[in-house]
Specification:
- With about 55 residues, the protein is mainly α.
- Helices cover about 30% and strands about 0% of the residues.
- The chain is built from one helix and no strands.
- The chain has one helix at about 5-20.
- The longest helix is centred in the N-terminal third of the chain and has 16 residues, at about 5-20.
- The termini are far apart.
Length: about 55
């Protein structure tokens, strides 16, 4: 379970991304998975990893 420090760290990370100009962010959380952060970039208009593009 996330504590307040974890939540603050996530909010800070998301704020930094939006301040850097990232306009679309997809966040997935899996309680069973150990801490892992990955990032994908997509410059088109479709969602990242969308099967429609």
């Amino acid at each position: 379970m996330a504590d307040e420090q974890d939540i603050d760290a996530i909010i800070k990370m998301l704020d930094e991304k939006t301040e850097a100009g990232v306009s679309r962010i997809k966040v997935e959380i899996d309680e069973n998975q150990q801490e892992q952060v990955s990032e994908s970039r997509h410059y088109g208009r479709c969602d990242i990893n969308s099967k429609d593009c």
